[in-house]
Amino acid sequence: MTGARRATAQSTKQIDADILIVGSGITAALMAAHLAEHSTRHITVVEAGTPSTPFAERARARDRYMAYGESPWKSDHLDDQNAFGTTWGFSPNMHVGGLAMHWGGVSPRYSPEDFQLRSQFGVGHDWPFTYDDLDPFYQEAEVRMGVAGEQGPVAMDPRGTPYPLPPLPVNHNLRQLQEFATKAGIATWSTPSAKNSVAQDGRAQCQRCDSCYPVCPTGAKYSPDFTWDALVKSGKVTLLTQSLVRRLEADAKSGRLTRASGNRTDVEGQPFVISARTFVLAAGFVWSPHLLLLSRDSAHPTGLANRSGLVGRYLAGHRNINAYLRLPMELLPGINAQHSLVSKQFMRVPRSSRYLRHDLRLWESSVGREPRWRDDSGAPLFGDAMLRDWQARANGATARVRAYYDVLPDRESKLVLDSTHENRFGDPMPNVSFKDAPESDVLRTWQEEQLRELFRTMAKAGGGEILRMENSANDLGQEHPTGGCRMGHDPATSVVDSWGRAHDHENLWVAGAPAQVTASCCNGTLTFVAVGLRTAAAIAREKAVP
Amino acid sequence: MSVERKPSDSTTASRRDFLRTAGTLAAGAASTAVLSTGVAACAPTQREAAADGTVSAGSRASGFDRAMLDALAEVMLPASIGVAARNDAVAAFVAWTEGYDPVAEEMHGYGYADVRYLPADPAPGWRAQLEALDTLAQRTRHKPFTQLDGQQREGVVSAALRSVRAERLPPPLSAPHIALALLSHWAASPGAWNLALGAQVSPGTCRPLGDAVRAPLPLVKTPTTGATS
Per the CB < 8 Å rule, is B5 touching A334? Predict the structure, then answer.
């Protein structure tokens, strides 16, 4: 008997909630934490997947990952719940904590320019608020996650308050790379990271185990399970796992959402209905618009919140160019391979005739310094001959440098329902296709060559050479993706307002990544959370509706 | 560590390769030894993992002819590491093989919508290759592999690996021959990297954060064996 058939044979479980949050990833977790502190309303959270690997098992999971490449996060997805199309950059994670259970913890802010691209550069779209408006929520996100960071030059790295934790150290390798970057005229500093540079919040200091991505065995890296554990223990949050929301229902007259319905994702597949006063979609850039599209009815034939026709549109992200440089210095790979230097120098550029903004990161690397078992003549290397050859190769230094560059989204950069792929309940799955806006499309070749030239210049300034350069998996998708329910002042050109409230439904909010207008040119998680916290603050300000 | 240990948000198509080869950090050597911090980090399971030095309780018998494997290790691994370290490397390789869980889910993580699975158990093929080395020794040298001198063993292994042309060491799980799997497994250990780098870097192990700002200490020679550690 299939899950769907079983489900119809069962009684429907009825649940009542004040605030219902769909999704349990990092944005949802920190929004719930904010709401629990600033509202008396009870919060119910629905997660389609199971709890993630318990903290007590994480060291063992890390060992098996290191030994075999085995996933430390078993059962972190549902086999029949996935996205199709150009999905590079997307992960089908469905478990408590979402993708942030195995994120790397890298937590840069966007730059002020990101919020005013049209005004300042004449490309893309402005956000409905400024960097300064978001600054308090960036601060809150940094405090809640525990971001360790170093203040960069103020002109490049404006912030309202200092980082909550001291920076992760610029280690023996990075110090040399910093000197090299300075010679090339580039200011760098310790990459801000949601990792404990000092023990705090009941979690350990980072021990540079270098498996932050995909699993931190010590708990030094922030992950949402810590927040959920505390919230559930406090009694302020009810977390329903293995519960897939498949439909949201709106009152045809008032437009207010009334119920969320779905099924358990265990073998039994029991149906459930949750009545709530406030609905928050915090399910990422794929599942948030997907649920709105799935929720179409006679009054909303193209899906909920979709008067503009923009649900699932303007998916945004960025691409990168990556290079390995051989440099005349002695680096010892493995001191802290997952920590890096960062620069925002190229994110804050003056307006010019051609648009290019990018970040810059620098790491130690072991590329070209690995052991081999045949020498240059092709003869096999045995025993001590192999070791001597390796020792000779291991001398010197390889650096990795990478730049994410901004890609502006087209309206046709979209997510649609794909009836050729259905889950066990017969729901069509999402199909994703990224498309550059025309201004990005025409600039792409030039932009990428500019980055390659920058790397060549850097190598030359350091007396080194380029070992190799490569593009990201570019046409297969984009990185740190956002959009699908973008925010704006005008209901005709956006799905939610500047606080994340749906233009069409006063008690529906879309939080974090899907609400974003663009995706900047750096890692996005901190901004997803900050945008979500701004939404949470707006929800908390509302009076409870009986 | 035979591959680039990519940063958390690495973005190239080789992320999958990285994940596939993350297993190059050897089982016995790289067990998570989380430092005691007095806070919640040290769960009991972590202490156990650190103490027994094993990766898991997977108890699949590899069935390797241990004398053959030791003889192969004498050819493949550096003599300069000393007999004890070589024996440890063989034991770690056997434990790693026995702890393997075929077709377990691979790490998919950020950037991949598809879920992939680890390969089938390589041990039966490696066992057969070990036997074949002995057969080849008997045919070409008229002696068991274990009774050949070092140069003769190298000749037999060279002949067996003639068709494997790639220069780079493959990750142990995808090694086409047990000789390369054994070497690759050792070369992935923090100790082997330390030997290559000439310093106590110990990649992939959990270490005090504050020490990262100093140059790692040089290796120390063991007075009795001359081996470095």
Answer: yes
